[in-house]
Structure formats: C-alpha cells, structure tokens
C-alpha cells in the first residue's frame, strides 16, 4: 500500500500549493491513499466544511487535525457526519467527531488514527492508553495502521512511536510546522518521522506573518496573527507498506 | 570562514562518536572553527571539567550549553575561568560564566553567542533583548557572529532568526535532539537551521534509554533516566561565511 | 496613610457591588487612597475607558491590571494618557502605559506599582529585577510604596514579598480570584497577603459561569466564558502605613 | 461525623507542630477522623514509612498525598500494603498504592479520595472522570465522601467541587501551602475550601528556606531547597457531616 501524507496545510497559500503540486506527486508516487493534516486550513486556525470539500476535491482522501481543530466553529456540525475527518482520539469521550477511521484501499483496509500529545499541549487523555484501546479494536480488522501524532515534544513523539513499534505501520508527527530529517523504519517495522512539516508560505514564522509573530515576542501583548503571503512550499511524506502492514520504505518530500 | 557546529553531545556514546568521526569531518570540511553543544555530555546531564577537556583535546574549539548547563555542579568553578565555554547569555546578571565569547580565527574574529528560549523552557531574560545588547557590543568588533539558540518552540527559533537576519552570520537551533530539514540562508544573509540534532545513541529516545522514558510517560512517576547504549550517530552543521560575515553555504550532516 | 485595595473586579456584577459597598467601606475605614484591580472589569476580559471612568467616578483613585490588561483593545489609546492606571511594570520596554504611578495623598506621596508573575503566567521581564529598578527611582521620592503583584504561584508571591521586605510598604497579591487567609506584616515592616480575591458573582468559578467553565474542563474544547449572574461579593484589603512607610495594620475584608 | 483535615505537613517542623497541637485540637473538636496531607513530610519531599508511622502514632488516621508522593523512594514498597495512605487516584492504572480508601468511623463508613489537578501540574488522568468512576463504586456503599484535591489553579479546584456538589461531602484543596479564606458549603451540601494551607515554618517560602528559594528566582539556576527552621504554624479544617453525608459546618483553623 502506497501512502502520501501531507503536513499541516496553512491557510490559502497552503491549500493552493497542495492543489497545484498534488497532480505531480500523484504522477510520481502513485499513492493509493492521500492523507493531509488540515488543522490550519482556515486562515491558520481550524477547518471549514467548504475548505474540507475543496481538499477532498483535490484528491485528498482523509483529513487529520490537531490542537486547532475547534478554532473555526463551522466544523462542529460537519465533523459529526464526516467519516473522512479524524480529530485527536484522546479528546475526552463525548467530544464530536471520530478519533480514527477505516478506509478501503484496493482489496485492503487501513485505519487512520489521529492522536495529540500532552507535553506542552493540553490536558488530553493519555495518547499511549488511547492508542492501546484503539488498537484492541483495530488489530483484528487490519494490520495497516497509520497514526498522525500531533505533538510538540520530540521525546513524547519518539516515545509513542517506540511504544507502538511493530504494532502499527507508521507514526508520523505533525504540529511544529518544521520538517525533521530523522525518517526511519524502527526495528519492529514501524515507519517514523518526528515532524512532516507544513504546507504554507516559505518566508514566514510557521506560516504566519513575521512582523506579527515578532511583535508578540517583543511586546508579550496579544497580536492577531495572519497567514503570510508570498511563495509557498509543500512538506509531505511518502510511505510504502507491505501486505502485512510493515513499512517498506519512507521518503521525505519538500517542494517549493 | 568555515565553521563546523556539532549538535548536543549526549553522554559517552555521544562523545565517543564525536572523537571517532571528527578527523574525517575535518578532512572533508577543513573547518576553521569547531563548536559543539555539550549540555548533555555528562551522562545526559551537564558537563564536567574533565569532559570539557576531553572535547577540547578532540579539537573542538568552543562549547555551548543549554538548560542542562548546571546539572553537574562540577562545572561551577570551572566555567568562570574558561573562555571557551558559553552558557545561555540570557540568564540573569550575576550568573557564572560567559554568554558569548570572541575567538580568533586566522586573521579574523568571530563571536559565539549562546541563547536560550523561554517558550516551554523557563523564566529567562528575553533572548531578543539580550541579543540586541550583545550585538551593540560586538558589531563594532566583527561581522562574524554565530548563535546557538537552545530552544523548544519552532516559532521562537524562527522568530529570533528572522529578527536577527542580516545582523548575524548564523542562528542555529539546539535542544530537541532531532535534526530538522529546513536549512536555509535568509534574505539578509543569516544561515538558519531549526535544530542541528544530537550526537548519541540511535536506538533511543533523544539519547536516553527507551524503557525508562516510556516508564515515565506510562506511569507519570519520576524515573531516573540513563543514556542508552548501542550504535551512535552524529548530527552537525557546516557553514561557510564570507569576509563580510554573511552566510555563503549551509549543509546538514548526519553520520552513523 | 490609610489604603483600601479592592480585588479583581469581574464584569458588571463586580463593578456594581463595588459601587454599592464602597460608601460603607469609606464610612468605616476612611481610606486616604482607594486602589482596585480592574483587569476583568469588561465582561471578565480587560477594561474599557468607559468602565475606567465609572470606577474613578465611584471614588477609586488608581486602577491596577494584570494578564488580561490587553483583552479589550479599547484600552490601548486611553492607557497611554491616563496616569491613574498602571499595568504590569515588567512588560517589555516600549509597551503602552505606566508600570507605576505617583499619587499625592494629603501631604505625602505614594507610589503604586503593578507587577506580574512569570511562573505559570508568561514570558515577562523579571519582577524581581524590575522592582529593583523602580525602587531605585522611587526610594529617593517617598517611603510609601504599594505593590499589586498579579501572580499565580504562592512561591513566587511570597518570594517577591520577602525579597522586598523592608523596602516597600505592601506586597499584595491578585489573580487567583480567591482570597487567602495569610495576611501578615513581615519583620521588615512590609504588609503581605498572597491574594486579595475578587469582586464578582459568588456562585461561580472565579467569576465566570460554572456550566461553561465545566464544559471546558470536561471536553477540553474552547468554550467562550461569560461572567456569572446572581449575588456578588466584594474582596478587599485595608492597610495603615506609618509616616515612614511601614505597615501598621492589615485587615482582610469580605462583603456579600 | 466530625472530621479534622490537616494541611500539607512540611518536614520536621511541620510534623512537630502537628504532634504538639493535635491533643489540643482533639480536645476542642472531638474529631471522629483525622486526615492529613503528608506529601512533604520527608524534608519537604515525599514520605517515608518511618514518618508515616510517626504520624499514625500521633493519632492521624489517614494520610493523603500529592505531586511529591514519589520523591522519597522508600515509600514504594510500603504504600502498596498500607490502606491508610492514599495517593492521587488519577495516576495511570498500575501505579502503586490506593487512590481512595474506606474507613470505619463509629457505625458508619467514609471514603477518603485523593485526586490531583492537571492545570500547571502534570499529565494525569482527568480528575473529573476519575471522580465519576470512583463514585460509581462508592455511592452504593456510603454517602460520606471526603476528597483532598491537590491542585494549583483555583479554577480547576472550584470546577471539580461544583461538578461534585451534592455527590460528595467535601472537596478540600491542598498544594499551594497557603490557606484560603473562602470556606463555604455549596448549595448541594458539599463543603469546600480552595486550600487548607500547610503545617510548617512561618517565616519561610511555602515551608522552604527563603534564601534558597530567592536564589532560584534570582538566578534561575537549580538550588537544593531545605525546610526552613524557626517557629511553625498549623493549618487545618474542621468539618461536621450529617448522617446523610451532607456538610453541616466548616471551620478553618490556624494555630501558631
Ligand atoms: Fe499546525
Ligand atoms: Fe498544531
Ligand atoms: Fe540537549
Ligand atoms: Fe536542552
Ligand atoms: Fe483577574
Ligand atoms: Fe489575572
Ligand atoms: Fe505540598
Ligand atoms: Fe504539592
């Protein structure tokens, strides 16, 4: 199974470079499944139904989310009826939306799970315990399991990946908006990258206007942040899985 | 000017791979100056005079530090008289050690500055303001200025680098122990990499034993962490500066 | 000198109970100076010029602020020209507004300083260093010095107060919205209370609607918080200072 | 049922004032049950079996804990076999020790629960969810339910108490080491105090040596903290419960 995962799509510049480059990427990698993190699609903060549809129309199959999932309240009704969007599974029970979803890919199935870290992030349920619970449901169904672990601390990301090594196909990090260079396949067969990075304006601070972010750091006053303009880049990851759900290859992608 | 910067050296595995690989790196890159972050050299926590001497003997010219600088108290007397070690300059006034140091390299001089981030880190003085203060002293002396910015958040690292673009030769991140893939030269001529990564055991969680780190995450109880064993890797960065102190090239290095 | 200090005024219920009870308090305590923390006056978030004028009209002489100072942007132009409002002095240089102000009281003068904590709060300048700087300006002018230290951690509040004991007349805490019972005069003559508490709805969670705050804790989703309704209470502190600026008495006040 | 709850006992000064004053308190209040928070009994950090025995010998029936529970590793074997000690129930499953315990008092039973907050504290399970789980076990057994909620943020403490109002007899806060003045009985019959305070040295910073705590704040360097010496105080709370487990009275106690 061939999977293309696209890092946090930031605002219109992010969506536009994805729409522009995805045909080339499909031609080159022939992915069976395209997943993208969309927590910043709506001007850097959240996702709207309209933007979700645009991303599905651009051939993305599944959208994952993160700490910004609820920033745009338009998502609230939509997410409850949309099985192609997953929000972090370790939100408390009763929160709208799915924490994982099962997708048919050719003759197989794959589970796409979204988890969020706690270190420097928020008071969520344990991603370790939540992963165990979900795996007890999924493991009888399919060995193809993809996790977008939306987290800040490298230690927590590496820890969850090592914890799940051999039990899932891939643990792929998002949230920092900076791609890391540590792609690897762990001894048990789990593909790992600490952070895929983002799709958004190059000359920015994690996608947002430099002057505004700097004003925040320099004054410690609240400053409304807007998505930066100018040339954008695309960060992604391409994975191949064996029929047994083990990672066969992992390749970082950066397009400008 | 040719500069080799080596990421956080973690314990004996980190020191040993540096000692082993540095001759090759010197042969390949002919650095005029070798800098290394040594905050984790002493079993993952701090630095001792003996280990500092070993690293100087291995041809490292300057050692930078970070949040672990005081973990091993043997450093306290030593750091006050050693101009080849810099600890974060934005510690409060009166704290032992230097925040920056000036080094002669061929006919030129270079300032090596260590700064630490505040986001998710601690209650230090502003790295932005501290950088301004130091630059007002250094800019009349030399245009060659290298900063190791030891910080967690990608936004703070990118913000400081953009703030200083054109005023310093390089802003290079450390602390996460995971190398990022975003090396670039900013419009003003400042070289930037969000994180250089570490020198330490490959099959580990940021250098430490996996089982112990996992036990912490799974129990939330205090667990003493030890440096992992097994094969090590080296993360570094090579930079070339023009005579005007602008970055001419930037290249990430990973050796296993 | 007789000083009445009123804890964080939360929304309209807070302002109304202050307006209602202040005449009684004046009759009972005959304060020479009335100070109030107004960071939550505008629906729990910030302060407007109109609300500031209402509080001045209600006989409050000086308003102090806290982490919510910029929540309502109407304050931005106003605060620059209003010497009766102080915002935390340890914001970075260049931020609008005063960090301390000098007030004539009878034949004497008193300095009212606002400082904010860093522990669990934000990346401000050191309140310790900032206090030292301000005292170097004020000590030649007057021995009457009142500090509203807006902070979360009891350790930081006690630490600053002990640090300044004998150099200022009072260090009075705000921010937690819960009055503490540890009023005391330190050996050097500085009056201290960890937190004065708030003026706002009794049957609430720190002034806000219980259901909304609970929804936040139970779902970890963003929930817009509104000021609770129903009966309100007033928390305050009454201080007497000697002519030498030492605390002579300290008395907690709670009115419902 | 008459309950005396004693705030965090800090080091030997804390234990000694408890041993000294408890006979007077028993004479005055005739408690049926004496509970004390002992997380700081061992030199400010944790609890040893020997100190636990000394506190039981001093007539304390039940010991509660907090974030410092594991600081002294001697407790590890002991806590597993000692039903008179409870550590926060919202540690992950599998952690040693009990989260709640049932005690016979005259003809009745009372459950003593220990919970820990997450805001500014650590990545524990939800205290809200954990409370629900425990109550589903306890409610059929007894209506007398006492909770020591060891937490930092006033909002989280008030939120849990309002959440449980009418379902438990008391939610009593610990951890800040400063007694609050907001004792009350909620509409549903639950007694509440944001923080009981501590038993320890008066002239200290939350029980520890002032100079050492100040050195930490002033240098941001690690400083080993020791319990302060000199006169101590005792902070406690006295509660009366009806046979139906409702709070009938609540009274703060401070002895010096
Ligand atoms: Fe993001
Ligand atoms: Fe995120
Ligand atoms: Fe490090
Ligand atoms: Fe570090
Ligand atoms: Fe407030
Ligand atoms: Fe506040
Ligand atoms: Fe404590
Ligand atoms: Fe505690």
TrEMBL record, chains A, B, C, D:
<feature type="binding site">
    <location>
        <position position="40"/>
    </location>
    <ligand>
        <name>Fe cation 1</name>
    </ligand>
</feature>
<feature type="binding site">
    <location>
        <position position="150"/>
    </location>
    <ligand>
        <name>Fe cation 2</name>
    </ligand>
</feature>
<feature type="binding site">
    <location>
        <position position="175"/>
    </location>
    <ligand>
        <name>Fe cation 2</name>
    </ligand>
</feature>
<feature type="binding site">
    <location>
        <position position="177"/>
    </location>
    <ligand>
        <name>Fe cation 1</name>
    </ligand>
</feature>
<keyword id="KW-0479">Metal-binding</keyword>
<keyword id="KW-0408">Iron</keyword>
<feature type="binding site">
    <location>
        <position position="39"/>
    </location>
    <ligand>
        <name>Fe cation 1</name>
    </ligand>
</feature>
<feature type="binding site">
    <location>
        <position position="39"/>
    </location>
    <ligand>
        <name>Fe cation 2</name>
    </ligand>
</feature>
<feature type="binding site">
    <location>
        <position position="67"/>
    </location>
    <ligand>
        <name>Fe cation 2</name>
    </ligand>
</feature>
<keyword id="KW-0378">Hydrolase</keyword>
<dbReference type="InterPro" id="IPR029052">
    <property type="entry name" value="Metallo-depent_PP-like"/>
</dbReference>
<feature type="active site" description="Proton donor">
    <location>
        <position position="68"/>
    </location>
</feature>
<dbReference type="GO" id="GO:0004113">
    <property type="term" value="F:2',3'-cyclic-nucleotide 3'-phosphodiesterase activity"/>
</dbReference>
<protein>
    <submittedName>
        <fullName>Metallophosphoesterase</fullName>
    </submittedName>
</protein>
<comment type="similarity">
    <text>Belongs to the YmdB-like family.</text>
</comment>
<dbReference type="InterPro" id="IPR005235">
    <property type="entry name" value="YmdB-like"/>
</dbReference>
<dbReference type="GO" id="GO:0046872">
    <property type="term" value="F:metal ion binding"/>
</dbReference>
<feature type="binding site">
    <location>
        <position position="8"/>
    </location>
    <ligand>
        <name>Fe cation 1</name>
    </ligand>
</feature>
<dbReference type="Pfam" id="PF13277">
    <property type="entry name" value="YmdB"/>
</dbReference>
